[in-house]
Amino acid sequence: ERLSSKDDDCDPILPNHRPDTTEPSSSVEVVSGMTAKSSVDFLTWENILNVTPIGPRRGRLVLTETHLIFTHTASDNALEEDYDDEIMPYLQSPGRQANNASGFMLSLELISEVLPRCYKLRDGGFEIFSFTGPRVENRVWSDFSIYLAFDDPGDVIMLRNEVVHSLKERFHGIKLKFWPSISLRDYMTSLVKTDPLTKLTKNWRKRRISNFDYLMKLNFIAGRSKNDLSNYIVFPWVLNNYSSKVLDLDDRNNYRDLSKPMGALDEERLQKFIGRYKALKKEKDDLNIPFMYGSHYSSKCGVVLHYLIRKRPFTGLHRKLQGGKFDIASRLFDSVRREWEKASKDSFARVNELIPEFYSDDPSFLRNENSWQFGEMADGKIVSDVLLPPWAEGSAENFVNIMRKALESEICSESLHNWIDLIFGYRQQGKEAKRANNVFHQHTYYTPRDLDNKKEYEKQSILLQVDDFGSCPQQLFFRPHPRRKISVEDECKDDDHDPHEELV
User: Fold this and answer.
1) What percentage of residues in the chain have a pLDDT greater than 90?
2) What angle do CA 375, 380, 385 make, to 5 degrees?
3) Position 448 confidence tier, pLDDT thresholds 50, 70, 90
4) Across 182-191, 283-292, 331-340, 478-487, which has the greatest mean pLDDT?
5) Mean pLDDT score across all residues of the chain
6) How many other CB atoms sit within 10 Å of the CB of residue 431?
7) For helices 410-423 and 211-221, angle between their N-to-C axes, nearest 10 degrees
8) CA-CA distance, 29 to 236, in Å (whole number)?
9) Which residue, among 4, 24, 22, has the nearest Cα to 14 in the 3D structure?
10) DSSP state of 443
11) Gap between the Cα atoms of 314 and 304, Å rounded
């Protein structure tokens, strides 16, 4: 029997068969100290993955009339088999009571939105978003999410749609505005013509949405997630001055050129990248499409774990990937200024952008609060807290506050659309990407369709490459992104605007 939606106009999801409706075992009834309410109508899905920063966890998903419950049954991740002292406190922390090592139980009434996810280059994933604290005015993204995915050989899109359709059927308040009825690639191609994304951009242009919130929402729509370190949220370097004692946020000279990718900011280094591209092009090798940058602006090892090495569970994850110890001190994230210089001009191997933590209200990732022994630099300097720019006056709070002000500044607002074109828009791929010197390794652009005709060993090689070295977000815009409105006063004069209208 096919499940039918009571709100078909909003949710074009057509599952092909009903999932298993057997009553869950007692192991599902108690999760994280919470007891599920009994019900005769349970829907269950076996062999589903809960994707988390520490890796995927395989288990059983149960949907009752009021709750979604996941019970961890097996590990897919070698890191999980011998959690060390850096990872276990993360799993046992109070903030993860709804999603810990045993599993999670989430009230359907807390779910605000579900977005599709491409897990391991297959359209079998979805992320459930929930507001866990007080609502923030004009915020268009949720602060807590749970990432689930199917990875079996069968029709993962059908399985994913079954779950999401069933969620919507049991709680109609769940938003599926960005949910596809077709493949993600086809969906993203047509998304620009649909109302939700256009509406979101319109409200950002009219300054009803902050730059930070707009970038967060674009990242989520484009498949980025804090639960998947290989597809983590991308934010730009906005400033270029990390050496002055005083920083004038009204001086354009203190801002990075957002119309250029990181690899193109320094002309001398750019010419080396162009030289590599031309040399590869001459080889005319069908297996190796020419590229400029061998590394990526967003990756699990080189960016996310690099920046978050001082925080659990990322400290433990870094050490696991380094054979149980830290990387050599000179390669660790030690100084904001040095990191900027390497990414913008000095290093041929680093073109990394930033992560949202640099603009958030929690600067703890900059402090060595757990007194990790990171080692010494060649000059004998001990690596501990991140060395901040002089204008931060030694305060991590000052640093992230000033970074956020720069992101929301008029100067940044005037050109942020150019960076969006590079990361999410029409200059991400193709001829426009070449003109913008924005060409990365071919594996970073791969989609599920690109694996269809690959042999198994080729698929595994590509997946390893994407997992460790990064991938581009789903392309959202196929024409130049509109610029943000300049005059605040003019945009406030909007007689047609309903203050109670949703922003997306």
Assistant:
1) 62
2) 55
3) confident
4) 331-340
5) 83
6) 9
7) 10
8) 44
9) 4
10) G
11) 8
Q: Cα–Cα distance between 182 and 166 in angstroms, integer?
A: 18
Query: Which pair of tokens denotes residue 327?
Result: 């990387």
Q: Evaluate whether 381 touches 332 at the Cβ level (below 8 Å).
A: no
Find the distance separating the first CA and the last CA of the chain, reported in whole Å: 34
* Predicted TM-score (pTM) of this structure: 0.85
Classify burial at 456, counting beta carbons within 10 Å of its beta carbon; exposed 0-12, middle 13-18, buried 19 or more: exposed
| Burial annotation 403-415 (CB, 10 A radius, 16+ → b, else e) | bbebbbbebbbeb
pLDDT of residue 500: 44
- CA dist list (Å): 153 to 63, 119, 124: 23, 13, 11
Average pLDDT of the residues in 21-45: 47
List of E strands, 53-155: 55-63, 67-75, 103-107, 111-119, 122-130, 144-149
Class of residue 325 by CB neighbours under 10 A (exposed 0-12, middle 13-18, buried 19+): exposed
- In whole angstroms, how large is the CA radius of gyration of the chain? 23
Higher pLDDT, 119 or 38: 119
Q: At what angle do helices 211-221 and 195-205 cross, to 10 degrees?
A: 160
Cα separation of 80 and 101, whole Å? 10
DSSP 362-373: --GGGS-TT---
**Burial (0-12, 13-18, 19+ Cβ within 10 Å), 199:** middle
Question: CA 452, 178, 229, 153 torsion: positive or negative?
Answer: negative
Taking 3-state DSSP, the helix, strand and coil percentages for the chain, each rounded to the nearest 5, stand at 40, 15, 50
Alpha-carbon distance 123 to 119, whole Å?
Answer: 6
Band of pLDDT at residue 137, cut at 50, 70 and 90: low
Query: Would you state the structure tokens that stand for residue 484, as one six-digit string?
Result: 């943000």
Please, what sign has the CA dihedral across residues 344, 317, 225, 159?
Answer: positive
pLDDT at 138 over 90: no
With cut-offs at 50, 70 and 90, classify the pLDDT of residue 134.
low
What letter represents residue 320's amino acid? K
Q: How many Cα atoms occupy the beta-carbon half-sphere of 278 within 13 Å?
A: 6
**304 to each of 44, 104, 228, 351, how far by Cα in Å?**
34, 25, 10, 13
Distance, in Å, from the CA atom of 255 to the CA atom of 430, rounded to the nearest integer, reads 28
Side chain identity at 254, as an amino acid letter?
N
Give the rounded distance of the alpha carbon of 385 from its chain centre. Answer: 25
Residue 173 has pLDDT above 70, yes or no: yes
The pLDDT score that the predictor gives to residue 62 is 95
